[in-house]
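stage 2 :: seqdesign
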């Protein structure tokens, strides 16, 4: 992956390009030291002067107010509704607010010295100004002063909003600081570089901070000031950094240098302009769709760049973008190559499940690997920022709605939840997941809530989704992509990095089980219900997370953890196809294999081939296989197979319990209840007994489980077994050496 970079056809100014920014995906506005406000088009790089600023107004920074809700541009070309409010700051401490026609709406004197940064807040409700006088101020959208949040003696070089507009990051000298806006909150400050810090950027989705300084390095930090990445020393100072809108890429600028990096810091490619002196890149800005970049230089030249050679791989297919409107699709097995040309610029694209889905400025193209020359085209879909492919459907997210289509181009569902339209712009790949027949979306306003949509035809949850309530804020959700409709599982990671799992078919009362700790990210296999999770210095594979989650012993038996120290740092999960897990570390790709026999076992489960599964385990004689078979067979009431599997896995207590279950009448309510208990579904066991009018057995069950209040309630309601309950309660308290404390039992005394 690299930038294809073009210069301006001719420099319109010999002055420094002090500030520039994207108005929409096709137009860039720039300011120069000779007070010109100009407009450039990214396609043909033509220039048009928009306005002449006052002679005493020397611009230092420029920022467009990007609207969160986009609309279709009837004129074509832009692909989204352009911004209509422009903020420009000057060297004499003033800032002005202009409308789209370049008329000055506000002209405000804000600082006693030069304003080095002026930025609209992410929600558009206000703006910040940071000056060389060491002061950062927050203003309303109309230009009224709200507060002075930072006041120091030293110069401030750059300042940026937090993605949620609840904090401000700024650099001063060799330090970077984060100032929360909440009252009585503590500021975080750390020494970032050996020299002066010249530029910073705060990522929207990953919440990482990038900084560049006079020590010729750029660094990546988390919000606590911990260093994630430090680059090697360049020849010259790093003068500008900027994250792409989706947070996946980082652009770094220096003298005659433009670098494209991963968000974790490692470099994809570097462009050096040795044939022509470009100068230092003082300002870098990404387009709102994240496919183009522009940079202003000290010599008055503007650089335009777009990403090429982005690669996607899936099984036998490999897709590469060779131009702004061209993709090359290769079939590695058949050794064929097809070139796909589009009439508009490519925005987003994904490859998987035998299909290639490409979103351009106003269309979505669906290619089948078997019929590559006859794509299905969906018109009217603009500003696509997320594409997720599933086995039956694929998902599109634009600035307004979520759309789910079939691969035939038919709209399957337009899921909505309360206040969804205002939350759609905040969605990213970590908080939305498409499964086999399920869609899960984390709520942005209350991040402890997950909305679950059912994609089966005629399902009621298509319009009224169920909600899963987590005790902590949710950082990532993932729905399994394989299995029977009744075996659909959802996992989520909370802010404490704990991993939880639940069955999405269990109804509105979701039972959540914790199966892992210190997990950074997870991914389901595309072919099985095997889960892989990445930790700080290792990764774990859960071979049977859904069926064994109710039993900590089974989770331990079916989970293996492997060291990743040999992979290096900054590891990310790329793909999980079949038995192969792909990791990426500092640009290098590592592929590891999970146990292939477990993959075969899962496919036998899906076909209900229990005898073949048993023969496979007898042949291989592996404890993971036996434990996986035991968990699967127990859930599906295959008692004979489950007994042999637990015996081979050396789980003697469970073998004895299964022997007790087999002594009961087959398919009786007692046996069904015991099976529910073994699978951790205590409430279900009680319901089975009560519905079959086995009241005494239900009371005995509650006593076994020490559910004293429920046992007393059943005895009083059905007028049976009261003396038994009271007698067992007395024995229980006597063994503990305690007096009665339950008010319901005290009433009967």
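stage 2 :: out
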């Amino acid at each position: 992956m690299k930038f294809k970079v073009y210069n301006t056809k001719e420099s319109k100014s010999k002055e420094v390009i002090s500030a520039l920014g994207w108005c929409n995906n096709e137009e860039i506005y720039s300011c120069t030291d000779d007070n010109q406000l100009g407009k450039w088009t990214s396609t043909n790089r033509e220039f048009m002067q928009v306005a002449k600023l006052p002679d005493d107004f020397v611009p230092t920074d420029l920022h467009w107010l990007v609207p969160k809700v986009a609309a279709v541009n009837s004129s074509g070309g832009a692909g989204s509704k352009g911004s209509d409010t422009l903020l420009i700051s000057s060297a004499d401490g003033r800032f002005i607010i202009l409308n789209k026609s370049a008329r000055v709406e506000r002209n405000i004197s804000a600082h006693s010295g030069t304003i080095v940064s002026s930025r609209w807040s992410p929600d558009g409700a206000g703006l910040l100004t940071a000056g060389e006088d060491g002061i950062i101020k927050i203003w309303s959208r109309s230009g009224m002063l709200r507060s002075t949040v930072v006041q120091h003696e030293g110069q401030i070089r750059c300042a940026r909003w937090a993605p949620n507009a609840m904090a401000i990051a700024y650099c001063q000298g060799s330090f970077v600081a984060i100032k929360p806006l909440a009252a009585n909150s503590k500021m975080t400050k750390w020494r970032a570089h050996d020299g002066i810090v010249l530029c910073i950027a705060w990522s929207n989705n990953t919440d990482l901070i990038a900084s560049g300084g006079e020590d010729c390095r750029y660094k990546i930090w988390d919000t606590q000031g911990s260093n994630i990445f430090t680059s090697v020393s360049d020849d010259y100072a790093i003068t500008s950094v900027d994250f792409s809108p989706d947070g996946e890429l980082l652009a770094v600028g220096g003298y005659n240098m433009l670098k494209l990096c991963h968000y974790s810091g490692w470099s994809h490619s570097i462009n050096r302009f040795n044939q022509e002196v470009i100068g230092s890149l003082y300002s870098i800005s990404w387009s709102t769709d994240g496919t183009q970049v522009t940079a202003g230089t000290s010599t008055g030249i503007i650089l335009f760049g777009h990403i090429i050679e982005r690669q996607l791989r899936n099984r036998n297919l490999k897709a590469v973008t060779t131009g702004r409107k061209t993709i090359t699709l290769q079939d590695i097995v058949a050794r064929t190559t097809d070139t796909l040309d589009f009439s508009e610029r490519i925005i987003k694209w994904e490859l998987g499940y035998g299909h290639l889905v490409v979103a351009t400025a106003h269309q979505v193209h669906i290619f089948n690997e078997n019929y590559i020359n006859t794509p299905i085209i969906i018109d009217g879909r603009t500003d696509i920022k997320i594409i997720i492919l599933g086995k039956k459907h694929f998902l599109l997210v634009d600035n307004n709605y979520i759309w789910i289509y079939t691969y035939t181009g038919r709209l399957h569902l337009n899921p909505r939840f309360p206040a969804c339209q205002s939350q759609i712009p905040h969605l990213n790949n970590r908080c939305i997941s498409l499964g086999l027949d399920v869609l899960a979306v984390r709520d942005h306003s209350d991040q402890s809530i997950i909305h679950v949509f059912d994609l089966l035809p005629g399902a009621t949850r298509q319009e009224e989704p169920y909600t899963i309530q987590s005790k902590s804020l949710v950082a990532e959700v993932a729905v399994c992509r394989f299995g029977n409709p009744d075996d659909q599982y959802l996992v989520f990671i909370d802010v404490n990095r704990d991993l939880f799992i639940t069955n999405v078919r269990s109804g509105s009362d979701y039972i959540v089980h914790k199966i892992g700790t210190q997990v950074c990210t997870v991914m389901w296999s595309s072919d099985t219900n095997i889960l892989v999770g990445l930790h700080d210095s290792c990764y774990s594979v859960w071979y049977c997370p859904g069926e064994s989650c109710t039993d900590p012993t089974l989770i331990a038996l079916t989970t293996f953890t492997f060291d990743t120290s040999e992979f290096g740092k900054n590891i990310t999960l790329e793909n999980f196809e079949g038995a192969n897990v792909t990791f990426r570390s500092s640009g290098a790709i590592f592929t590891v294999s999970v146990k292939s026999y477990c993959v075969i076992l899962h496919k036998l489960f899906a076909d209900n081939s229990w005898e073949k599964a048993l023969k496979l385990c007898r042949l291989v004689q592996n404890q993971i296989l036996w434990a996986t078979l035991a968990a699967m067979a127990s859930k599906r009431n295959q008692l004979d197979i489950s007994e042999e599997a637990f015996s081979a896995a050396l789980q003697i207590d469970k073998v004895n319990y299964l022997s007790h279950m087999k002594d009961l009448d087959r398919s009786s309510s007692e046996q069904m209840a015991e099976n529910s208990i073994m699978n951790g579904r205590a409430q279900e066991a009680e319901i089975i007994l009560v519905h079959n009018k086995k009241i005494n057995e239900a009371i005995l069950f509650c006593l076994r489980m020490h559910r004293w209040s429920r046992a007393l309630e059943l005895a009083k309601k059905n007028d049976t077994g009261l003396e038994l309950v009271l007698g067992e309660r007395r024995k229980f308290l006597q063994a503990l050496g305690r007096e009665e404390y339950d008010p319901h039992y005290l009433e009967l005394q």
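stage 3 :: structure notes
- The longest strand covers residues 371-379.
- The radius of gyration is 30 Å.
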